[in-house]
Amino acid sequence: MDCFEITGPNRLAGRIRAAGAKNAALPALAATLLTEGSVELSGLPLVRDIRTMTRLLEHLGTRVETVGGTLRLTPSGAPVTDNAEYDLVKTMRASILVLGPLVTRFGHARVSLPGGCAIGVRPIDQHLAGLEALGAEVTLEHGYVTARTDRLVGNRFRFAGQSVTGTENLLMAACLARGTTVLENCACEPEVVDLARLLVAMGAQIDGAGQGRIEIQGVDHLGSAKHRVISDRIEGGTFLIGAAITGGDVVLEHACAADLAPLLEVLESAGCTVETRSDTVRVAATEPLRSRSIETAPHPGFPTDLQAQYMALMSQAEGRSSVHETVFENRFQHAPELVRMGAAIQVDGGYAWIEGPTPLSGAHVMATDLRASACLVLAGLVADGVTTVHRIYHLDRGYEGMEEKLRSLGARVERTSE
Ligand code: UD1
Known about the structure:
The chain is α/β, with parallel strands linked by helices and 418 residues long. It has two domains: 2-19 and 231-417, UDP-n-acetylglucosamine1-carboxyvinyl-transferase, Chain, CATH 3.65.10.10; 22-228, UDP-n-acetylglucosamine1-carboxyvinyl-transferase, Chain, CATH 3.65.10.10. Helices cover 32% and strands 26% of the residues. The protein is built from 14 helices and 24 strands. The protein has helices spanning 22-31, 48-59, 86-89, 99-106, 125-133, 164-175, 190-201, 233-245, 257-269, 307-314, 334-340, 370-382, 393-396, 402-408; strands spanning 2-8, 13-17, 39-42, 63-67, 70-74, 83-84, 108-112, 137-141, 144-148, 156-158, 180-184, 205-207, 214-217, 225-228, 249-253, 273-276, 280-284, 294-295, 319-324, 344-348, 351-356, 364-366, 385-390, 413-417. A four-stranded mixed sheet has the order 22-23-1-24. Strand 4 and strand 5 (70-74) form a beta hairpin. Helix 1 runs parallel beside helix 7, helix 6 (164-175) packs parallel to helix 7 (190-201) and helix 8 packs parallel to helix 12. 53% of the residues are buried. The protein binds uridine-diphosphate-N-acetylglucosamine. Uridine-diphosphate-N-acetylglucosamine binds next to helix 1, helix 5 and helix 6.
């Protein structure tokens, strides 16, 4: 297993390019199951979750070819198997995204209940209730979801709570259902909008993506399309927090300031200089950081996927701040690791209180999920001495060449094998 050795303190300065969004690329890959043609996807990040999803698609009979920096995916006319097995699915919760496309296109699907980040109980009840509302017969057995239908039929379905992949799964399923589907209380994340853009390019009829109510007029077939995924606001946001925490100055290229707005507003209020241009965002730490409390929420609220990184930042800000995690329970596993490095953090249920600034000192640390690992890397950048972040495979799920990007900004980071 690999780990990162970070020798601090560091100051991040320079320009880097945001990678393509992992969470937009995963549903885009799943959507290729809906068509009889080929779909060319570009801008996909080179991260492990994407390789896992392409392996899953290959297992389902899709031909995957690399043409320059583009992936061309051509699904088989009938699936070689409708079975998304545990071994392929266990490392990545987003594997559930193949359920909707498989059942709506082929009338049957069998998908292992997903694994993924250990951030609390993460049910998929809304995905299943939505498919049932469209007429699928859904059963849960031996750790697998099985869904069957002659053909899905459009219906009205209201999500009990907003779910990003739940919205994406049902959006894809509804594209080939007979008649009109109305989805209510949908997730409004930019990645949902990006998926809808791809589906429309494939011939789907979708109205309202990015809003709470999405209306889909089912069609009989979807065709070929070319699509470039949006840039990764979470990866980019992590580097911008990196600029803020290290007293640095980073320009993020290929960035969408509107998608990053919930973070940028807080960084500005915490004392950072924030400049946005057409596709660049600059964050510079020009004065001492002030503590600012946040509450995570579905988009356009503060993203839960930046909560851990933000907590590291607040350990270096003047005063007391709170972080209220409302999207997931049990998403504070980074807090005790930060405390081991010298941070003053108290956790109570969904709240964490951070007293800053506290000097951090290098230590051996380990995280059990993707974004918590990123938080520990950021803490390691400002800590005095060597921080060893273990189990970097979590980070590799979602960050493309993180150590190279950090080094290009001046950080002393090495990847080593344990
Ligand atoms: C997606 C993102 C993930 C991000 C999360 C929230 C992808 C591949 N992953 O995950 O990085 O952290 O959105 O922004 O896009 N829930 C239910 N029942 C369901 C579905 C969800 O109760 O059927 C709950 C979850 O337990 C959680 C909340 O709803 O508390 C939000 O989860 P959801 O939006 O579904 O997260 P994901 O789509 O898995």
